[in-house]
Amino acid sequence: RVALAPVTPLGDSVTVGGRTVAGMGRLRGINMTGPWYGGVLREIPLGEIPAADVNWNNVVGDTLPVFVTRATDGWVLLADLDGDGSLANERPVHDFRVARERFGWAAPGRTPALTFTADLAEVDGVPVLDLFFDTSGHGTHVAGIAAGHGILGADGFDGVAPGAQLLGLKIANDAQGGISTTGSMLRALDYAIRTAAARQRPLVVNMSFGVGNERGEEGTARIDALIDSVLAEHPDVVFSISAGNDGPGVSTLGFPGSAARALSVGATFPRVFLSRQPTPGLDPIAYFSSRGGEVARPDLLTPGVAFSTVPRWNFGDEVKGGTSMAAPHAAGLAALLVSGLAATGRPVDARRIRQALMATAQPLEGLTALDQGAGVPNVGRAWRWLEGNYAWIPLAADAVGPAGHGNAAFRGEGLAPGDTTQQFLLHLPAGTKLPLAVTLRSDAPWLGAPSAYDFSRWEGGVTVTYHAAQLQAPGTYVGTVTVWGADTMAGPLARLVNTVVVPAAPEGEVALPVAALTAGHERRVTFAAQEGRPFAVRVASGAPKDVVRAWLHEPGGQPFRNGNEQEGAAGDEAARFEVEAQDVVPGLYEVVAAAPPIANSSAGIAVHRSPLGLFADLRDGAPLVALVNHTAAPVTATVAAAVVGGAREEVLTGAGADTGSLAFELPAWVRRVEVDVRMPATDWARFTDFGVTLENADGSQIGQAPLNYAFGRLEAELPRQRAAGTATLKLYPGWADPGSAARWTLTARVRLYGDSAQRAPLAVAGNATVTIPAGTPESVRFAAPASPWPLPAGFVPLLGYTVTAGDGTPWRLTAPLVRARAPLMR
Question: Residue 826 pLDDT > 50, yes or no?
């Protein structure tokens, strides 16, 4: 939105926002007597390139004046679009909904890189101006996949449903990293439904957006419930949503892709993008495609990489990947089916369309229901399913107990003694003819189910059995019980997905020896981590020619905060993750190793735990590190410490859409900034986003990192030659509920790192080498530190500890010089 205020010309010139523009006669020619309004579009607040250089003059930070006045045919916008300092040769731009006019800034003879449209409204006789433009390219790319026609002028180069009419709705603020804004998802869905109804058109909605479900909270997000409520009221609306890009770990599916009534879409990796000579067969699953766990999603897999439309400034980047690209493929398929139903005069039922796509899909070999849902859809078979008018009944399922959500039962820590059964409540839609007999089938030998069940009323219970003797070896076990009616051509009436994750032993080394991996297939292992106990993960192939990719996921599925994906090979080329003590999240981590999509490989996985837990504390103004022995034998360790920077922690609060902020000095000695932001996991489900941006004093961005979970980390490297200044951490809450006035609270931890060559080692107050008995903590104390750098107000020294023990592996802890909340050493 461009703030407008009345302007008064001085001769043939007019000044607004400190910028003077000639050619006032052009404004007078449109409206002789006024009033005339002026405002400015400032580049810096719009974010990164291309937004930071909208007039494409290679200068970041311009201020571009715009003017609005009333013409005989309504409000119009006038601006110096060619940059010659005058309005004399500029044409007026009308509201886009009225005249479909586009404009952009560019030097004479050049085509604008960014295309703008104007939304001109009026409130109490005064104009209101909003400018619309695409500085991400994401939505334009997605739209082309769903319904592009003649892409790049090539006949026949179309999206999935090229006859569909497109309605583009913005839900995100790209200036702050593409974060959704409060209530935007629900408002967009409402607008789409009202617009389709006014035009008497069937509606398919696509949303290529999602953030991570927190552990124990999958399927419970507020936006999931809101979307399900809207779709229940509008059963003819098909809503396709991307599953997320946090795979391949289990339980990584994001919301609102976990909404029960949505079509949740994961991704394949099209072979055409993998090799110049693509091999035949179905495309493999994409590594990044999020997997289910606590919820039994996604529903389908569609291509997650595509060549599609982009804005002019984004030419050369027509190939993009992600489940964002998969969702519009599915939306296009749904549009084809909806179009066919409308053309033949039959009603549209979103649940039947989803069933048509799932019942006729082709599953990929070696994948589970958590990876792929029903598999890869085939629109021809889906249409024939709809034409067949099969007797399919939408049977809803609810897993009973704390391990259940909807049609999924998930045990993430193995089976407890005696835990061998799981009950599902099955709900028939009201009006179903009773009695009704169904049969049940299990696809896993460890998962038992009754062969049949007879409904005498609209609700019943089915108990499945876990054969514990077959669930002893560490691994991830997924089995599905399908429920069938008399008409088996209709496909399953319900799918009851059961998952048991058996972790490796809590102590000792975790080692999976090298084994062959078929192209596109994975090995995974889950293991326990204790607070403060660092560890390292190594994933290696068995031969130098074998390439393997590796991922590390924190408890609950969140990608490892210091980068969760690496490529490796054999020996010294192995992929390696090092988790320092301060970053360890207590609970079960998951490592996944995968072969390339079109090449066989091999992989072994090893987890090496520190024998010691490391904890920092403060006593009498001096630092102390406590060492806790997790082994059964004494451990001798040598400890060193140094000042590595400065740290500050603040609790920030706000209400509703309040933008929280924290300002601090950023000295010239700082080489890297790290900001950790955390809110209670139970609060996260109330949001659709939470933006985190670090800005300089002039508003330019140092970095941005939208939260994808209740915890997020922003990292920014700073140039060596720069002046000291003030930085501001800004927080942008995006609530699921429009107009929410609820309060939010989170903790922000800011760490400033200096040049490693200038770090100041600390003197030991005693002996740097200690022996720690089994199960007993010992400590090493250091002299009070003197920082080699002047610390800004509110910051304390940030210390880096290195502990070498046992086999000589160095284990690390970085911590501020503050008293521990629960110190181990008194």
Answer: no
184-204: average pLDDT = 97
- How far apart, in whole angstroms, are the C-alpha atoms of residue 312 and residue 602? 43
Task: Give the mean pLDDT of 733-761.
Answer: 94
| CB count in 10 Å sphere of residue 78 | 24
Amino acid identity for residue 678 in this structure: R
In this prediction the pTM is 0.95
**DSSP-based three-state secondary structure for 387:** helix
pLDDT band at 681, cuts 50/70/90? very high
* Cα–Cα distance for residue pair 458/452, rounded to 1 Å: 16
The rounded distance, in Å, linking the Cα atoms of 135 and 708 is 21
Q: List C-alpha distances in Å: 601 to 513, 517, 541, 544, 569.
A: 14, 5, 7, 10, 9
**3-state class of 773 per DSSP?**
coil
Q: Which of 592, 578, 602 is nearest to 501 (CA)?
A: 592
Other residues' Cβ atoms within 10 Å of the Cβ of residue 437: 11
In the predicted structure, residue 782 carries a pLDDT above the cut 90: yes
Dump pLDDT digits (tens) for 799-812.
999 999 978 999 99
If pLDDT is split at 50, 70 and 90, which confidence band does 278 have? low
Quote the tokens at residue 320. 């993009």
Query: How would DSSP label each residue in 779-809?
Result: EEEBPPP--SSPPPTT-EEEEEEEEEETTTE
Asked if residue 311 lies in contact with residue 267, where contact means CB atoms within 8 angstroms, the answer is no
For residue 578, CA distances in Å to 151, 193, 530, 799 come to: 45, 49, 15, 18
Strands 687-695 and 305-307: unpaired
d(CA 616, CA 636): 18
Is the per-residue pLDDT at 263 higher than 50?
yes
Contact 784, 621 (CB under 8 A): yes
